[in-house]
Amino acid sequence: MANDDVMLFEALPWQIEPWKDKSPIVLLTGSGGGGKSRLCAEKAHAFCLKYPGAMALAVRKTRESMNNSTVLFMKRAVIGDDPRVTFVPSKSRFEYWNGSILAWGGMNDDKQREQIRSIGQDGGLDFVWMEEATRFVEDDLNEVLGRMRGKAAPWMQVILSTNPDAPSHWIKKRLIDGGEAAVYYSSASDNSHNPAQYVDNLGKLTGVLGERLREGRWVQAEGAIYFDFRDGVHTIEPFVIPANWRRIRSVDFGYTNPFVAQWWAVDDDDRMYLYREIYMTNRTVRSHTERIVELSRGERIEATVADHDAEDRATMAEGGVKTTAAKKAVSVGIQEVMDRLKVAGDGRPRLFIFRGATVEIDQSLEERKLPVSTLEEMTLYTWEDKAKKEQPVKEHDHGMDAMRYAAMYLKGKNTWSAYSRQQ
To answer: Please, which of 50, 72, 160, 381 could form a disulfide with 130 given CB 3.0 to 4.6 Å?
Structure first.
């Protein structure tokens, strides 16, 4: 501490080079606990202090994630009580004595995107930090790059921090393999500030999550079930669903494990579109039912296909959501989803997932680096026996189960059923 108010940053050895780097795009990746986020936060803060009138932005996929994690971290661990900086939560920003601004926001929907587009007097940015970057889509980066026209400093930068994902992810293909970013790797062992328990917990991670979070590798799960799944093929931008398309819901119950409710639209060619999703822990079925009714208002729902739990289905019925029991044969359901993922003769698959379909991010799951959506489960869902391929591993399967229920319900059903027009 230089004095009682100003906090000083003491860089770890690995952080020194990316701290100095002035490349237009910088990517920090590697295992969990390396200190990637701390470096980005400190660099954004230092940029605003050094260059008067700078316009900086810290962004995560959802605004809620920023408010509940990154903003608190910035305020408590990086800026502290620095008299040169004023915290202005009503405007979602930190204001600096020299005219610089560090704003924060999300990019999960049009409303959040519009809020960050209005940042800055001329819409230009000097410095952007994209946290948990694998949750962004490539167009998010493109939009940010299109706004890098600030003039406060002789250099501008977009810095991304993230743990690894699948090797097919756009960040791996574009920024690492394509060489568009200056890339820096770190691991938990590079950060002397990590509690021993945190390092121990990382060491206990298994499977592909272990390889990504413990070893910092951009890997596909060995024995992946939905190996045909591709970002950019099966993930699409949201669009207005025609009123005459069929709509169904599918539900997989959970409390400690995620409760998943999915909304599927079906076009005239029997293609499925996951356009809305609840993926949430630690909420009662009654609360979920109220939310489902609220989100479905004004929509014609053909059927709600649910797990067999009689008590939970009864609770949903009491709340106004009648359900029909799902066909739960695992191998048959997996094969049906596999068939839908295959690209047909017209160059398109028969199953799509809207980007940003999940209506809110479960903070407890995000903090534990666990999947927060069906989309994130897709590359983690694996066979228990990679040779026999008979049963999946019972983890990262909650959205997968709900998706199976939906696909099996639709199998052979080309017209509205007796469950037509449920609300």
So the answer is: 160
User: In this structure, are strands 324-325 and 303-306 parallel, antiparallel, or unpaired?
Assistant: parallel
Strands 235-236 and 127-131: unpaired
How would you classify the pairing of strands 127-131 and 157-161? parallel
Of the candidates 414, 421, 417, the one whose C-alpha atom is nearest the C-alpha of residue 269 is 414
Residues 174 and 134 both lie in one domain = yes
CA gap 279, 374 in Å, rounded:
8
CA–CA separation, 352 vs 45, rounded Å? 40
| pLDDT, tens digit only, all 423 positions of the chain | 345 566 788 999 999 999 999 999 999 999 989 999 999 999 999 999 999 999 999 999 888 878 778 898 999 999 999 999 999 999 999 999 999 999 999 987 778 888 777 776 566 899 999 999 998 888 899 999 999 999 999 999 999 999 998 888 899 999 999 999 999 999 998 998 888 888 888 887 777 778 888 888 898 777 889 988 987 789 988 999 999 999 999 999 999 999 999 999 999 999 999 999 999 999 999 999 999 999 999 999 999 999 988 999 999 999 999 999 999 999 999 999 999 999 988 889 999 999 889 998 888 888 777 889 999 999 889 898 876 788 898 989 999 999 999 999 999 765 544 444 443
Token code pair at residue 149: 């026209």
**Helix and strand counts by DSSP (H, E) for the chain:** 15, 15
Neighbours of 370 (CB within 10 A): 17
Q: Is residue 196 part of a domain?
A: yes
Residue 249: partners with Cβ closer than 8 Å, 6 or more residues away: 261, 262, 263, 264, 292, 296, 301, 303, 304, 305, 321
Of residues 157, 20, 9, 23, the one with CA closest to residue 74: 9
Q: Which of 8, 89, 104 is nearest to 49 (CA)?
A: 8
Does residue 135 fall inside a structural domain? yes
Claim to verify: residue 196 and residue 286 sit in the same structural domain: no
Tell me, yes or no, whether 227 lies in a domain.
no
Helix (H, G, I), strand (E, B) or coil at 54: coil
- The total number of structural domains in the chain stands at 2
Check whether residue 156 and residue 287 sit in a common domain.
Answer: no
Largest CA distance in the chain: 72
Q: 37: which 2 tokens?
A: 């986020």
Report whether 330 contacts 384 (CB < 8 A).
Answer: no
Q: Which residue's entry shows tokens 């009503």?
A: 90
Q: Is residue 301 part of a domain?
A: yes
